[in-house]
Description:
Shape: rod-shaped
Mean pLDDT: 78
Strand content: under 5%
Largest sheet: 2 strands, antiparallel
Structural class: mainly alpha
Helix content: over 70%
Oligomer: single chain
Distance between the termini: 128 Å
Number of domains: 3
Radius of gyration: 48 Å
Order of helices and strands: HHHHHEEHHHH
Low-confidence stretches: 170-177
Number of helices: 9
Amino acid sequence: MQNIEAILTELGIEVPADKKESLTKKVSENYITKAEHEKKLGKVETDRDTWKEKAETAETTLKGFEGVDLETMQKELSDWKQKAENAEKDAQAKLYERDFADALKTEFEGIKFSSEAAKRAIMAEVKDAGLKLKDGKILGLNDLISQMKEKDASAFVDEAQQNAARFTQPINKQNQGGSMTKDQIMSIKDASERQTAIAANMSLFN
Length: 206
């Protein structure tokens, strides 16, 4: 790129030495080179195209709202927001229900019931009691089970009575020829023990 002095020299114009600095300053203040002009012009064109694209996008977006009632649109947005919140709550509730069922199943593994029907009934009653799950444990479950045992002892296996029956039955059979009364046999809560006693005293049921 030629500077102004070289151009003037080619044209046969000599600039006095004491005027060169002033000339260069004036030219730089009032004129730019072709390359600088093209660079600035390119940036202007790029900015123009960018804003043109934004304007077209905005125009398209606005056309999409033509004929749309703002109040209706706001209501629809509110409805979708409520649906999203409800879906989140429903998902959380299902996860909690699953975790509660898993914890209850684990707790019930350590409890002996007189039958599967009794187990299902007690499990349903526990679920309806509104107990809360925290850190994988069901709060208040032990107290509730204790109350249920007092209320309906037949639903649970009395381990003390079961062990006593195991020790007393062989003695009765050996020393007394299995002489248990029918009422005693039918009062045995454990089904398997009761069936064993019946088999050993079939004469009472003929």
